[in-house]
Design goal:
The chain is α+β, with helices and mostly antiparallel strands. It contains four helices and eleven strands; from the N terminus they run ββαββββαβββαββα. It is globular, with a radius of gyration of 17 Å.
Length: 208
């Protein structure tokens, strides 16, 4: 099915619409939605839910990344992004429950894909067990819950591997290393983890 996206210049001035495949072929600036699911348990430990990307995706198949994400269709705004949380994770989320934490500019080049995207980034606090998620297998091949403090140590290079609860892997507990995450030039995941910790500690006025 053809997806039509809004395209922009470097100043986020709207230029028109274009087919998604053509947007990625030509490197047009476009907007996407990122939602990171977080929670703090009764023992005061902080966690993040991450998805393992589908093996069929054009970029970074089978690697761990943002909990739920997707492109805005032409005319859509951030409010419409909650659709991605429902579709990819099976969670019923109201827009007012999201915590916006700013925009992230992403620039990457892959074989046959030039990706210039502006992501609206938000947090969603949800302490449901993984058994209560109903992820979309066409987009998501599994979910992993990671202790944020342990993940920070991993990204800081203090440990080589960490363990997390998982679904979709054939095992309830898996071991992950830094190579299991989508690589970014701006330490995006590491920065999200730091910001998530600050948010769960009650800080306000947070920007990615």
């Amino acid at each position: 099915m053809t997806e039509i996206l809004d395209i922009y210049d470097e100043n986020l001035t709207w230029l028109g619409t274009k087919d998604r495949d053509e947007v990625h072929r030509d490197g047009d600036w476009h907007r996407v939605f990122h939602c990171w699911v977080l929670y703090r348990d009764a023992a005061g430990r902080d966690f993040v839910v991450m998805q393992r990307r589908s093996p069929e995706t054009a970029t970074f198949p089978n690697l761990l990344y943002v909990s739920a994400a997707g492109h805005y269709a032409a005319g859509e705004k951030m409010r419409d992004g909650v659709r991605e949380v429902r579709e990819e994770l099976g969670l019923e989320v109201a827009f007012q429950d999201l915590i916006p934490v700013g925009r992230r500019i992403g620039i990457a080049r892959h074989p046959q894909v030039i990706d210039h995207e502006i992501a609206d980034v938000c947090f969603y606090r949800c302490d449901k067990s993984l058994a209560e998620y109903h992820y979309q297998p066409e987009e998501v091949s599994g979910l992993v819950v990671l202790n944020i403090d342990e993940a920070l140590a991993l990204f800081a290079g203090e440990v080589a591997v960490i363990r997390g609860q998982a679904v979709g892997y054939g095992s309830d507990v898996i071991t992950v290393a830094s190579a299991d995450f989508v690589p970014t030039k701006d330490d995006y995941i590491f920065r999200v983890l730091i910001l998530a910790k600050r948010y769960l500690n009650g800080e306000k006025y947070l920007v990615i």
